[in-house]
C-alpha cells in the first residue's frame, strides 16, 4: 500500500493512461495501444499512485489487476474526464460569447417594443446566454453601465452619456403627431407639422430628454412656428398622459402607438426632415466581453432584417 503523497496534476493524458492500463490489465499492451514505450507508462502510473496515496494496481508476472481503490478510481476517472471536457468547452463558449450571463438595462417604454424580440432571438440563436433585465431612468442606466453593474443598456436619448462609454444606433424611429382620439386630426392619414401651429403642446423636459426636446423645437422652427407650451414632462409616458387627457398634443416616436394608451391617436407627419427621426442607442463599456458583442450584433442584425 502506498502512503506517501506528492503533488499531482490529474491531466487528461494521465487519466486516459490509467483507464487504458485498467482496460488492458497489462502495461506492455497498454503502452502499445497508447503508442508509447512501457517504462514511461509505468512511471506515470506510479506517479499517479503516489499522488493519490493509494495503490491502484496489483502487479504480477502475467499483468496487473485493479485493487479496490483502483476499481473505485476506474469509476470516477471517466467522470473527471467528462468534467474537464465540459469545463474547457464552457470557458471557450464564454470567451466566444456563446455562454454566460448578461445584465441588460432599459427605460420603461422600450420594454414593450424591443425586449420581447430581443429575448426571443437570443433564445433562438444564443441559448447558452442567461439574460437579466433591469429597468431604470436613462441617467441611472448610463451610470450603471459605466460602473460595470450592467453590461448593455438601451436608451432613446444618448445626449448625456459619458465619453468613456460606447453607443451604437440600434434602431431609428419616425416622429409622429400624438393627439387625442377626439381631436379633429385624429383620423387623418397624415398631416404637415404646420397643421399643429395653433395647438398647445406637451413638451419633453430639456434636462431629462435633451435630444428629443431639441428635435421638437427644431422641427417646429423648421415648419415656421414655435410650439406653445401647455405642459412639460421628463418622460415619454408623461407626455402620452397629457395627450390622452385631451389638453394638448405632442410629438413622439410613432412606435409608441403600440404602448396601448387609451385616448391617443398617432398621426404620421409629412416631410423628410431629419428632425422627424429619433434613434434608439445601445450603450456598452468599451471593454465589453464577447457575449455582449455577440448579442448586440445579433439583435442589431435581426432588427434590420425584421424591420
Question: Could you please describe the fold and organization of this structure?
Answer:
The chain has 307 residues and is of the alpha/beta class. It contains ten helices and eleven strands. The chain has helices at residues 12-24, 27-34, 38-52, 68-96, 110-113, 115-125, 138-147, 210-222, 236-244, 290-306; strands spanning 57-60, 63-66, 100-106, 129-135, 152-155, 166-180, 200-204, 228-233, 250-253, 264-268, 277-284. The longest helix has 29 residues, at 68-96. The chain is rod-shaped, with a radius of gyration of 33 Å. The mean pLDDT is 87.
Broad CATH class of the largest domain:
Alpha Beta
Gross geometry: rod-shaped
The fraction of residues in strands falls at 15-25%
Distance between the termini: 72 Å
Amino acid at each position: 500500500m502506498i502512503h506517501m503523497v506528492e503533488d499531482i496534476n490529474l491531466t487528461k493524458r494521465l487519466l486516459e493512461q490509467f483507464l487504458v492500463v485498467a482496460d488492458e490489465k497489462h502495461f506492455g499492451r497498454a503502452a502499445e495501444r497508447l503508442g508509447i514505450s512501457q517504462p514511461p507508462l509505468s512511471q506515470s502510473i506510479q506517479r499517479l499512485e503516489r499522488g493519490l496515496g493509494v495503490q491502484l494496481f496489483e502487479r504480477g508476472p502475467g499483468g496487473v489487476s485493479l485493487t479496490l481503490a483502483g476499481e473505485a478510481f476506474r469509476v470516477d476517472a471517466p467522470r473527471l474526464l467528462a468534467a474537464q471536457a465540459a469545463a474547457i468547452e464552457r470557458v471557450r463558449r464564454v470567451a466566444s460569447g456563446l455562454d454566460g450571463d448578461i445584465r441588460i438595462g432599459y427605460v420603461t417604454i422600450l420594454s414593450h417594443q424591443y425586449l420581447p424580440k430581443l429575448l426571443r432571438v437570443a433564445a433562438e440563436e444564443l441559448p447558452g446566454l442567461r439574460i437579466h433585465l433591469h429597468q431604470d431612468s436613462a441617467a441611472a442606466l448610463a451610470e450603471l453601465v459605466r460602473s460595470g453593474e450592467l453590461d448593455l443598456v438601451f436608451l432613446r436619448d444618448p445626449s448625456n452619456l459619458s465619453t468613456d462609454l460606447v453607443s451604437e444606433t440600434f434602431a431609428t424611429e419616425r416622429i409622429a403627431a400624438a393627439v387625442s382620439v377626439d381631436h379633429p386630426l385624429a383620423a387623418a392619414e397624415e398631416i404637415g407639422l404646420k397643421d399643429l401651429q395653433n395647438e398647445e403642446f406637451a413638451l419633453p423636459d430639456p434636462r431629462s430628454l435633451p435630444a428629443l426636446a431639441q428635435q421638437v423645437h427644431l422641427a417646429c422652427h423648421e415648419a415656421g412656428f414655435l410650439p406653445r407650451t401647455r405642459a412639460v414632462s421628463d418622460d415619454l409616458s408623461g407626455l402620452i398622459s397629457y395627450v390622452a387627457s385631451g389638453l394638448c398634443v405632442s410629438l413622439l416616436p410613432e412606435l409608441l402607438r403600440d404602448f396601448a394608451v387609451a385616448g391617443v391617436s398617432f398621426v404620421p407627419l409629412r416631410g423628410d426632415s431629419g428632425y422627424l427621426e429619433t434613434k434608439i442607442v445601445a450603450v456598452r463599456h468599451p471593454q465589453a466581453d464577447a457575449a455582449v458583442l455577440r448579442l448586440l450584433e445579433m439583435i442589431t442584425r435581426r432588427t434590420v432584417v425584421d424591420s
